[in-house]
Specification:
Layout: E1 2-13, E2 19-30, E3 38-48, E4 51-61, H1 64-76, H2 84-95
Antiparallel strand pairs: 1-2, 2-3, 3-4
Amino acid sequence: MKQSQLLFSNEVVLEDERVMKLDYSLTEKVSETDQDSPYYGVRITKSLDDVVESDEVTGISTSKDTMVSFIKTLFQFEVTPITMVEVLDDLITQEI
């Protein structure tokens, strides 16, 4: 079973004055084999000119606090769905 919780939202004014909305959500999925250990991930949704793009990475960490910290960093740097995987890779590498 997977759940999602919106943690942060950004509205970014682009150079051409259009407004891009970014939503950062924490995802939680309980393993089918181990009901006690949820895995956390992130979904970023971008809305611009009635076009919605979204990307999601699940199962990154069993630590909710770690994922919330990662998502806060993504929010602070206005990371979009297109660059999310690369930025997450860097964050995870720094954490190890």
